[in-house]
Fold this protein.
Amino acid sequence: MWPRAGRGRAIAAILTAALAWGTASAAVAAPEAATNAAPDTMILNVSTEVLEALRSDKAIQAGDFDRVQKLVNERILPHVDFDKMTRLAVGRAWRGATTEQRRTLTEQFRMLLMRTYSGALSKVTDHKVRLRPSPGQDSADDVVVRTQIVPSQGDPIGLDYRLEKTADGWKIYDLNILGVWLVQNYKSEFGETISQSGVDGLIKVLTDKNQKLASSAKSS
């Protein structure tokens, strides 16, 4: 199901670069520095660290999901607000969800994104990121960092990050991929399921999807 077939293939390709955040020019920063950095600097600093990890980890290159999960948890997750991302994707139904339902939704949504796109991480090699001019609609605590993903061959592709300033630094909570915001893309799909089966129905669909993806990975 999510994302729709044609869009899904495009999103998968760009999310590969999104998760890798590859750039050859930024200096590697310590986690504390990345947390306190300006949003565009943070994107560039973290991207170098992640790309170097991808290049040096043979297990990730072989498609080892556990290694991908470890990389995401250690290098990417600290800079992403999955709670907010999930809340926005679920929409109005989030307000009526229990604490346990919210926890499970966030966990399953994060796992879905990781399992859907982890295989593509092994294909990341020499991608780079270039910053593009800001759209000029930023506020003091909510900004859009616009980038281009530049492969060694082929045309660059636009990828934008939406970040919010928190007590723990800037956190990513949405991505604009090929002109489509990731949260909005999932929100329309989640809404259809919720209207038919409620929040528990959405949890079941996400859980089933993750189990199928896990089974497929083990059998491949």
Observations:
- The two ends are 20 Å apart (CA to CA).
